[in-house]
């Protein structure tokens, strides 16, 4: 069975069971309008012209007005908070982390709160109160303090733990970061998607967590872009698959009151 046929067969199983196989798309490291971001928007367009909903993880310290204008012009975009400056604070012998155990917890939370206020001011209702920690990792104490600063949800990589409703993660990263940073390959990419969908259907992982596709528009090669084009096309033909918007997953938008951060 081909890689694509295995994925399509899994989606057929979902359809035959009367359930929709929900998926979502998170793209990281957005800071400004670029040709690569334009390419992402074009790639995430189905044959009938309708857009696939996208969640952009935006770096607050670097985000500019061109990105805000692009978000305002594309209602299918949801903006998530990608840390604060995407700056590594871990020593060379450890894995990279902006929100690890290397700085005081309150200092990191204060920084995230500052970043969130900038995101709300720039992106308005396009911004959802969701933290995407750089490099998909953060200290447990940071995670536990997020709700206190208005960040009600977070998103990392891998199946979420049982009962952790605050997390909606990604499960299929299409870049091979450790071997040349190119496309991970069709077999690997479809295998990650098919594997998570099957695990959900069979109850081996949280069935309610939508299967997340993770991309990086600034880092992808042509093979990765070709894969995404094919993925969008094939899913558009499958009754069992359904893309979810960020608002359907995370719900609330964030607003700023004069003296405090509130949610509406």
Explain what the structure shows.
By secondary structure, the chain is α/β, with parallel strands linked by helices. It has a single domain, classed as TIM Barrel (Alpha-Beta Barrel), CATH 3.20.20. The chain is built from 8 helices and 12 strands. The strands form 3 sheets. Strands 1, 2, 3, 4, 5, 6, 9 and 10 form an 8-stranded parallel sheet that branches. Strands 7-8 form a two-stranded antiparallel ribbon. The chain has a two-stranded antiparallel ribbon with strand order 11-12. Strand 1, helix 2 and strand 2 form a beta-alpha-beta unit. Helix 1 runs parallel beside helix 6. The protein starts with a helix and ends with a strand. The C terminus is likely disordered.
- Indicate how many domains the architecture comprises: 1
Sheet-strand content, in percent, reads 15-25%
Give the mean pLDDT: 94
Number of helical runs?
Answer: 8
Structural class: alpha/beta
Reading the helices and strands in chain order gives HEHEHEHEHEEEEHEHEHEE
| Helical fraction | 25-40%
CATH class: Alpha Beta
Question: Any idea what the CATH architecture is?
Answer: Alpha-Beta Barrel
State the CATH topology: TIM Barrel
Largest sheet features: 8 strands, parallel
Total number of strands: 12
Structural Rg: 18 Å
Unreliable runs: 255-264
Tell the overall outline: globular
CATH homologous superfamily classification: Glycoside hydrolase/deacetylase
Termini Cα gap:
48 Å
């Amino acid at each position: 069975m081909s890689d694509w046929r295995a994925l399509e067969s899994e989606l057929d199983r979902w359809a035959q069971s009367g359930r929709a196989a929900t998926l979502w798309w998170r793209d990281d490291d957005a800071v400004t309008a670029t040709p690569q971001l334009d390419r992402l928007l074009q790639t995430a367009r189905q044959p009938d012209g309708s857009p696939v909903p996208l969640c952009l993880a935006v770096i607050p310290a670097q985000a500019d007005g061109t990105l805000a204008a692009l978000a305002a012009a594309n209602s299918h975009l949801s903006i998530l908070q990608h840390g604060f400056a995407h700056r590594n604070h871990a020593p060379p012998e450890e894995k990279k982390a902006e929100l690890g155990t290397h700085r005081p917890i309150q200092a990191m939370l204060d920084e995230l709160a500052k970043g969130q206020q900038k995101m709300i001011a720039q992106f308005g209702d396009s911004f959802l109160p969701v933290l995407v920690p750089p490099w998909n990792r953060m200290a447990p104490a940071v995670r536990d303090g997020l709700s206190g600063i208005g960040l009600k949800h977070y998103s990392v990589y891998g199946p979420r733990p049982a009962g952790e409703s605050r997390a909606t993660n990604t499960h299929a990263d299409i870049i091979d970061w450790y071997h040349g940073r190119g496309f991970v390959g069709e077999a690997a990419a479809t295998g990650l998607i098919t594997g998570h969908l099957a695990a959900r259907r069979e109850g081996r992982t949280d069935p309610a967590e939508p299967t997340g596709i993770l991309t990086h528009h600034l880092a992808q090669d042509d093979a990765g872009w070709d894969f995404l084009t094919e993925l969008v096309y094939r899913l558009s033909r499958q009754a069992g698959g359904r893309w979810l918007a960020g608002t359907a997953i995370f719900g609330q938008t964030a607003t700023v009151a004069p003296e405090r951060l509130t949610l509406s």
